[in-house]
Amino acid sequence: MIPNFKAHPWHGISAGEKAPEVVNVFVEIVPTDTIKYEVDKETGYLKVDRPQKFSNIIPALYGFIPRTYCEDEVKNLAVETGAKEVTEGDHDPLDICVLSSHNITSGNILMEAIPIGGFQMIDKGEADDKIIAVLVEDQVYGHIRDISELPKAEVNRLLHYFLSYKNLPTEPAKVKIDLVYGADHARKVIVASQKDYTDNFAK
């Protein structure tokens, strides 16, 4: 008899046999969502985190890489590449955006993606990297292997979202992005987050 259980999307699924070149992604939010969903760390179920405050709609599929964590290794990598005022990782799985030409209408799904770069985001002193990836075999984006191959407007659209999605009009900016990096560094961030995961959850 097959046991009736659901694997925890953070702890019960691997980052992928080919990680960091190709990674598993658990998608929490899709571009049509006006609610920010987030995996509940205790139960593994998708929960409502908050309604989107304004017209900030995520321009790509958004989720995390299983069995990753952002703590000392991710923070140290940010410091090594010149990040200022960063004191720790954000204590969450590594975030990832996946570009696809397909209209995927709901989250709570798994997919394979190829990391092509990322943003070194600092959120109130915490290293909160955002990996940018493309859906494996996507007809429009699937051939891209580095963020430098994307149109600048696509990169700017993603940058604008992350620089503004937490802000109220009357408040100063809460986050900063000092570095847009390519595929080579993205893979280093993924490996660092896997090491942080092992150090914290696989002892």
TrEMBL record:
PANTHER family, per the entry: INORGANIC PYROPHOSPHATASE
CDD domains, per database record: pyrophosphatase
Any GO BP annotation: phosphate-containing compound metabolic process
Record protein name field: inorganic diphosphatase
GO molecular function: inorganic diphosphate phosphatase activity; magnesium ion binding
Broadest EC class assigned to this enzyme: hydrolase
UniProt xrefs under InterPro entries: Pyrophosphatase, Pyrophosphatase_sf
EC number(s) reported in the record: 3.6.1.1
Annotated keywords: Hydrolase, Magnesium, Metal-binding
Cofactor field: Mg(2+)
